[in-house]
Write a structure and sequence with these properties.
By secondary structure, the protein is an alpha/beta fold. The protein contains 16 helices and 24 strands. The strands form seven sheets. It has a seven-stranded mixed β-sheet with strand order 14-17-18-13-12-20-21, with helices on both faces.
Length: 494
């Protein structure tokens, strides 16, 4: 579709900002709303229900009733499977609409919203649908006069709180396994990008998910999010977002009913390029493409680049030649590869880190400025710092923007030590032609995912999550069922 066509369609797209509770669209009980603004040009997209305690309680009550009467949990696995696969099919039917909502709402390029986010999100739902009737229990090695069964049961009412950087995909990572396991769900999207979550819930109803099983309560974290965290009838809460808020979620779980709390949090991923890397051009393309993808608004973005000193100059020359390809453009133009920053608050945060890096003595080699100001939107140039020291804030704190910090090393052991020296442990990478070195380094890197001679390759079959303050639990793969099920032992005396 041409840029003109996407712009024309954006003028007529129908947006309903009301919550979805018990199978019905509803305004917030107190009538509060907030404006949903597009970072592309600052225009108002919709007024969205600002849910609070009363709305959350209504959603949880609806989810509990649906769970207890078995309208979803009581279905045969094959029935739930057919519904989730139907939902995945509907997501493909509506892929242009979902992609447009995602791009308008949070600013990512339309080419990625459609060809990456929608495709991966529907594949996630489909994969968990397919997995439903392929999960088996266990028979324990009990004495001859006994039979011990180990089975999985849904945990009950699941609350899911998702971030704004990949709203559709992060929702799917929660929706897929939670519903596949037979739970009821209350989803709270970020107030910065709530639109695709609301539409997905409508499509779920159309696919056959019973009313009350999948509820969506848009609103602010300190209102709707806090109400979910403290609710006494939520059995499990799954959160993806900042480490600061993740700590609050864990505290609220303890303050309330000791609900199971799973978190996928921040990152400051290290990308280590050794002098013997097998393909320097590939290493450069991987480093640059991964940090500027999604405007740098990725928890696993490789924002710390460690380059062995003997190849540093050659690496930087190649990197600087690639940076202009990521100049921000119109997100509704299919040739654009970097779009808008999600909102003004995040934009000021990123620009603040850039100023801090300059003040600390790092060398700004590219970018560092706001861009496309005349559009009324929120854009930042792809930014690259060299001469970064490990003690600088830009090398220690998560920026969540298109900012790359380059550090040099001569000793791999020291590079690994610095890579591990942050509170985070979400992802890392090492580039080397020496397989023994790759294995040894991978084992020493304290991260949930370690990439070797590539960055960010993965799929739904492998788990995603972090060490340390990057969170607990895992999204994706069959391991995600551990978050949304209880293990039951049934001991039968024969």
């Amino acid at each position: 579709m041409s840029m003109e066509s996407w712009h024309e369609r954006s003028k007529t797209v129908q947006i309903d900002g009301r919550a979805l509770i018990g199978g019905m669209r509803r305004d917030a009980i107190l009538g509060a709303r907030f404006d949903c603004l597009s970072p592309i040009d600052g225009r108002k997209l919709a007024e969205v229900a600002r849910c609070s305690d009363a709305d959350v309680d209504a959603a949880v009550t609806s989810a509990r009733a649906a769970f207890e009467d078995g309208r979803w949990a009581g279905l045969a696995p094959g029935e739930r499977k057919r519904v989730l696969i139907r939902l995945a099919d509907l997501m493909l039917v509506h892929q242009d609409e979902l992609a447009l909502l995602e791009t308008l709402d949070m600013g990512k390029p339309i080419r990625y919203s459609r060809d990456v986010d929608v495709r991966l999100a529907q594949n996630c739902i489909r994969w968990y649908g397919e997995a439903i009737d392929k999960l088996y229990g266990e028979v324990a090695p009990s004495p001859q006069d006994s039979l011990a069964l180990i089975t999985r049961e849904p945990v009950g009412v699941v609350a899911a709180i998702i971030p704004w950087n990949y709203p559709m995909l992060m929702a799917a990572w929660k929706i897929g396994p939670a519903l596949a396991a037979g739970n009821s769900l209350v989803l709270k999207p970020s107030e910065k990008a709530p639109l695709t979550s609301l539409r997905l819930a409508e499509l779920a109803l159309e696919a056959g998910v019973p009313e009350g099983v999948f509820n969506v309560v848009p609103g602010y974290g300190d209102e709707a999010g806090r109400a979910l965290g403290l609710h006494m009838d939520v059995d499990c809460i799954a959160f993806t977002g900042s480490t600061r808020v993740g700590k609050q979620i864990l505290q609220m779980a303890g303050q309330s009913n000791l609900k199971r709390a799973w978190t996928e949090l921040g990152g400051k991923s290290a990308n280590i390029v050794c002098a013997d890397c097998p393909d320097l051009d590939a290493a450069v393309a991987g480093a640059i493409g991964s940090i500027y993808f999604n405007q740098g608004e990725s928890c696993n973005a490789p924002s710390r680049l460690f380059v062995e000193a003997s190849i540093r100059d050659a690496f930087l020359d190649k990197a600087l030649a690639l940076v202009p390809r990521y100049a921000p453009g119109d997100p509704l133009d299919e040739s654009t590869v970097m779009g808008a920053i999600v909102d003004a608050t995040q934009m000021q945060t990123v620009l603040g880190y850039i100023e801090d890096g300059k003040a600390a003595g790092a060398r700004l080699l590219a970018g560092g400025q706001a861009a496309r100001i005349e559009t009324g939107g929120l854009y930042i140039e792809p930014t690259l710092f060299d001469g970064v020291e490990a003690t600088m804030r830009i090398a220690r704190e998560e920026i969540f923007g298109p900012v790359l910090s380059v550090l040099s090393f001569t000793d791999l052991d020291e590079a690994v030590r610095q890579a591990n020296s942050t509170p985070y442990g979400l992802a890392a990478a090492v580039w080397t032609a020496d397989i023994a070195k790759a294995i040894r380094t991978s084992r020493r890197l304290r991260a949930g995912t370690v990439h070797v001679n590539q960055y960010d390759n993965d799929d739904i079959t492998v788990p995603f999550g972090g060490y340390k303050q990057s969170g607990n639990g895992r999204d994706k793969s069959l391991h995600a069922f551990d978050k949304y099920t209880e293990l039951k032992t049934t001991w039968i005396q024969v």
